Amino acid sequence: MKKILLLFVTLFTITLTNAQQAVGTEFTVGDFIYRVTGDGTTVTLLSKVTPETVISGAVVIPATISDGAFNYSISLIESAPFNDEAGITSIVVEGDTEIKFQAFRALTSLTTVDISAIATAKVGNSAFINCTALKTANVSNLTNAGTNMFKGCTALESVDLTNATVIGNNMFHNCISLTSIDAPAATFIDNLAFYLCANLTQINIPVVETIKTGAFNTTGITSLTLPASLVTIDETNYNMFKNITSLTSLTLLGETPLVLTYDSADGVNTIFEPELFNNVTLTVPEGAGAAYFAADVWKNFSTITEASSLSVDSKEQELGWSFYPNPTTDVVSIKNSKLVNAAITVYDLNGRALLSKTINSVESEVNISNLHSGIYLFNVTTDTGAFVKRIVKQ
Fold first, then answer.
1. 283, 310, 337 — which closes off a domain?
2. Which end of the chain is more exposed for a tag (fewer CB within 10 A), N or C?
């Protein structure tokens, strides 16, 4: 009996070894060549079978691929396979797969992209650059939306950035069809992120902490709210609001003015163009007006108004909500006196979405006992309004 069992195990091991190809081995499936990588269980989608191979229509890149004997996870899509393929109309990536630099460059018939399965893997710079027909993109689980990702995608109308904490350098450069951006988890907006988005009128960035040079240069923004979480507008952030003739309202939720400096002794600051100081109403929390009137750069605005509703607590009370205890060690009790449905997402100060809950009753709870001690942001969205509540976990 022992000999029979040993023979079975030996045969099974030989079969498995033969089935799983050695690292570096290349094999072909359909129109593509794959290379075995890592520990031998993953592959890179390397290239087309021949340079003359034409890829068209709807392209689905699965999470795994088989060579006929073994299933490999596709861990990486190289830069070459899809560049300049004019016939591709849609892209779906089904696995948490890394995408290399310019992997889907200039696919001029591409209209939809779904890479929502990518959460931890990296999407390389300029991944979809100059896909001029692209209209919708779902990158909902991607946290770092990188440099030039959709640059030159002039038809892009909708993009899901639910979990993006970083909006990369020039990410939406010249996306002239975008009219609104909702980035509920974004904490960092890099240089020229929305440069030349001439029809972009609305941007929601409720937990942003840092905004870099020229982020909103030459957009169509009419009003903008900068949250209390914002701690850095880069001092070299020239042209941040350059060529925004439509801007009439700038709302700051922080009670203490951000420290801004003049670029020269003559009192010039290039974050704001001079005409904005006269054309834009600066709205600040109740009681903060005096501080803004005294602060460099902010004091240049001819109209600074106070609004009590900008206080987080006031907005919370206005909508009929209360959170207790705060600080807490485990459970946050929530009362909703107006009985409205709400979606609550809990973020850390790095903008990572940690948990979410839908509330449809007068009383509810959110358990944060598994979270480390620190400050967390409860982003509350209802049909009648939205606000962010800071909760301290001890």
1. 310
2. N
Output the pLDDT for position 1: 39
Q: Which residue has the tokens 């006269």?
A: 278
DSSP state letters, 274-323 = TTHHHH-EEEEETT-HHHHHHSTTGGG-SEEEEEGGGSHHHHHHHTTEEE
Co-location of 317 and 286 in the same domain: no
DSSP 3-state of 208:
coil
Q: Are residues 300 and 328 in the same domain?
A: no
Give me the count of residues in the chain: 394
**Sign of the dihedral defined by the CA atoms of residues 191, 194, 198, 204, in that order:** negative
State which residues form the domain around 271: 82-310
Q: Are residues 326 and 344 in the same domain?
A: yes
* 3-class SS of residue 9: helix
Q: Same domain for 203 and 294?
A: yes
Residue 147 lies in a domain: yes
Q: What is the structure's pLDDT at 238? A: 67
Whether pLDDT at 19 is above 70: no
326 found inside a domain? yes
Tell me the per-residue pLDDT of 171-224, one tens digit each, with 9 for 90 and over.
999 999 999 999 988 999 999 999 999 999 999 998 899 999 899 999 999 999
Q: Are 173 and 216 in contact (CB under 8 A)?
A: no
Rounded to whole angstroms, the Cα distance separating 156 from 150 reads: 8
Nearest to 94 by CA among 66, 116, 110: 116
Nearest residue to 162 (alpha-carbon basis) of 136, 138, 178 = 138
> Cis ω on the peptide bond leading into residue 285 (within 30° of 0)?
no
Amino acid in position 345: T
- In percent, the amount of the chain with pLDDT more than 90 equals 55
Residue 39 lies in a domain: no
